[in-house]
C-alpha cells in the first residue's frame, strides 16, 4: 500500500509540473471593442506550478526554486517560464502558454516575494 501511495504522489507531481489540460483564457466582449483576454494567473498557477513550487512559491519540490526568496528580475523569470531552467529542473512552458500568459505568470511570481 505504501508503494502505491508513493507512486500515486509521484505521478500527481509529474502531471502537475508539466502536464494537464490547456487552460483557455477568460474573455469579455463589449459591442464596441474586440475580444479582450483576461489572464487568470492564479488559476494557471494552481494547475501548472503548485505541485513543485507550492501555493506560496516556497515548497521546493523536485528542486523547484523558492520564489519567495528569489532575487531574479521579471525578464529572467519570463525566460525560465518560457524555455525552462538551465539545469532542466523547470519545465519549459513556451509551447503550452502564450507570451501574455507567460508574462502574467512571471509577474505573479514577483508578487510571491516576502517583504
TrEMBL record:
Keywords: Heme, Iron, Metal-binding, Signal
Alphabetical list of SUPFAM superfamilies matching this protein: Cytochrome c
Domain Cytochrome c span(s) in chain numbering: 36-113
Domain of life: Bacteria
Cited InterPro entries: Cyt_c-like_dom, Cyt_c-like_dom_sf, Cytochrome_c_Oxidase_Subunit
Keyword Oxidoreductase in annotation: no
Pfam families assigned: Cytochrome_CBB3 (PF13442)
A GO MF term: heme binding
Signal peptide limits: 1-19
Protein name: Cytochrome C oxidase, cbb3-type, subunit III
Amino acid at each position: 500500500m505504501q508503494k502505491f501511495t508513493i507512486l500515486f504522489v509521484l505521478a500527481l507531481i509529474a502531471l502537475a509540473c508539466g502536464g494537464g489540460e490547456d487552460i483557455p483564457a477568460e474573455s469579455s466582449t463589449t459591442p464596441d471593442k474586440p475580444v479582450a483576454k483576461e489572464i487568470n494567473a492564479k488559476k494557471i498557477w494552481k494547475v501548472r506550478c503548485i505541485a513543485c513550487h507550492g501555493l506560496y512559491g516556497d515548497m521546493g519540490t523536485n528542486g523547484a526554486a523558492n520564489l519567495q526568496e528569489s532575487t531574479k528580475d521579471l525578464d529572467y523569470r519570463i525566460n525560465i517560464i518560457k524555455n525552462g531552467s538551465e539545469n532542466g529542473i523547470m519545465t519549459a512552458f513556451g509551447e503550452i502558454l502564450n507570451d501574455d500568459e507567460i508574462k502574467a505568470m512571471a509577474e505573479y511570481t514577483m508578487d510571491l516575494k516576502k517583504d
